[in-house]
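User: quick one, fold this
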Amino acid sequence: MSDQPRPAFTADVASQRVRSLTRAAWYAGAAAAGRLIVRPELGGEPEARLDMPAPSRAAIRRAYGEAFAKDARDVATGLYPAAPDGVEPLKAVRSAADVIADARAVEARRRRQGGTEARAEAGSDAFPTYYRQNFHFQSGGWFTADSARRYEDQVETLFAGAAGPMRRRALSLLARAWRGRDHRGLRVLDLACGSGAFLADLRRTFPRAHLAGLDLSPAYLAEARSRSGVAARVQAPAERLPFADGSLDAVTCVYLFHELPPRVRPQVAGEIARVLKPEGVLALADSVQGGDEPELRRMLQSFPAYFHEPYYGSYQELDVPALFAGAGLTFEGSDKAFLTKAWLFRK
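Assistant:
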């Protein structure tokens, strides 16, 4: 008996398009307001590091629109259900005000290059050194409830509302691999689940599977439970997963590997392969690399130039299929949209 979501009606798809585009317009507006208030200095040292030609508006519109088009297509074919991507006016205004207010602190931190201020947070000394950083110059690093609460809005503001459709490229690959399969009893781990947005996508798509979210941050795990409704939370490092060998049917992982030091990536890949069952799958999503979107390479350069992304440069050179082949996983397919690429691997 299949547990696959019912095919979506045309009205469902049209409604999702409206919700997604409304959400995108809202976050694009929030991003523009933030830039006006913060007024980051251009022409300084970060700008000098951007030697790639600026992408054309047509190239950006094409890549950006592709994320929404693919998301709508997958809903239309019943691959996964429509996401509740609308905007609740009062909540949205409050969230935007919070993100824009915090943008001042983020910009000040960027100017003074305060990438390791999170090491002063209480209890942070119990975590790996590479983790104790203000990635993206965000306030509190990964350690505070305020950081966890505003993270999703910050990401959506950065990508003008396209973060959800982009990361669902990994959901698309997993749903295709499991199409027609009974999902009851399948065990799925969302590795580095963060504040739980992708975990919520998994819950809507596979309501009968056993889902768990793993993260190293207690604050983000608490936010993930609130956002996704998934009660199973595991606090542990990705390089030492507390699961038995061959115990999981699938692992999902979104936007983790570009924030890992090169020496840690093979450890995490090996742990993922260890805990997967034979024929188990990994659905991975992370940044596109320069060869994936040549016209957008200047945008890729901007991440380490304007944000604290100490390992992003080495990630741009990473052969992702080779990394997981070395751990014993076989590459089965990939997909991309805007600034995100997803891969499917099988054990």
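User: anything notable?
Assistant: The chain has one domain: 1-347.
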